Amino acid sequence: MVDVLSQNEIDALLAALSSGEMDAEELKKEDTQRKIRSYDFKRAVRFSKDHIRSLTRIHENFARNLTTYFSAQLRTFVQISVVQVEQLPYDEFIRSIPKMTVLNIFEAEPLEGRMVLEVHPNVAYAMVDRMLGGSGTAPLKPGALTEIETIIMERIFSRALENLQEAWKTVFDLSPRMEALETNPQFMQIVSPNETIALISLSTKIGDTTGMINLCIPHVVIEPIMSKLSVHHWFVSQKKARVPEELEALRQRVTRAQLPLIAELGQSQLTIREFLSLAPGDVITLNKATEEGLAIRVGDNLKFIGSPGMIKDRIAVQIDEIVNEGVEEFDE
After folding, report:
1. For residues 132, 133, 139 and 142, what is the CA-based torsion angle, rounded to 10 degrees?
2. Contacts for 268 with CB less than 8 Å, ≥ 6 apart
3. Whole-model pTM?
4. E strand or H helix at 95, and its extent?
5. Which residue from 115, 121, 47, 109 is spatially nearest to 84, judged by alpha carbons?
6. Domain with 269 in it
7. 175 and 136 share one domain
8. For residue 302, is it within any domain?
9. pLDDT tens-place string over residues 38-61
10. Where's the Flagellar motor switch protein FliN-like C-terminal domain (predicted)?
């Protein structure tokens, strides 16, 4: 808050200036001197606000992908969202997590170094409980993981890392690969204690169980691609390169889509009594003569007219005519 001088103080200041007790030039120098700000080298600022915003956007997509993935795997209500993205020393991160937790250590080629996906025991054990047929509740005092529980967790989170690859695809093509699963933070030393990391905290809710999932990304690991985390670089690359890639991916997906193709020999109407009395050898009269073309439908729509035949001892249909768009039926 700015101090407001009283009239008496103003008069005293003017008198001091006119008498020479105070020098106006010295006052100006004091005003223009650079202010000193303390800097903690243990909390080195490696990520700019621009980088933090980009990481937030990327991992908001990651949180949405994880929500969909875990909801399908666990067959229950799952909600995951980004709480905060911050930078801090690696040692501070290690001291902030529980002594008994689930640490998924992974690499993301072509980047060199390791990252960590830390899952709170409440969340991890609730997932295992659901996978084994339970209601998704975590034990009050989590114990050591059994071999079966370890294998289940490795499979769950190995596939969860595929969603991280999808989220980063707009910035850089990563290939995450699970390296190890640990439960004691003291046994995990992926970087030096003073190394700055980006910590992405995800609030997680599985049924009635809540907890945190933390993604630890050391600065030294993503330093080679820091320039790609610039918002300007991101939007320019999206505009120039991403659109053609998306169109090509969409085209490939559409061409691989499967559609039901049905060739109708004809139709007939029976009463319930006639239907129930059908027996082997009975003949059902259709509404078309044998020389008439067959209605070939794609889905429910009539698209072609053809004729039946055989190719190498297999029943086949030859397309004789393409039905114009908008024409649903013929010869009726």
Report:
1. 0
2. 284, 285, 286, 287
3. 0.57
4. helix 90-96
5. 47
6. 258-322
7. yes
8. yes
9. 655 556 677 888 888 889 999 999
10. 253-323
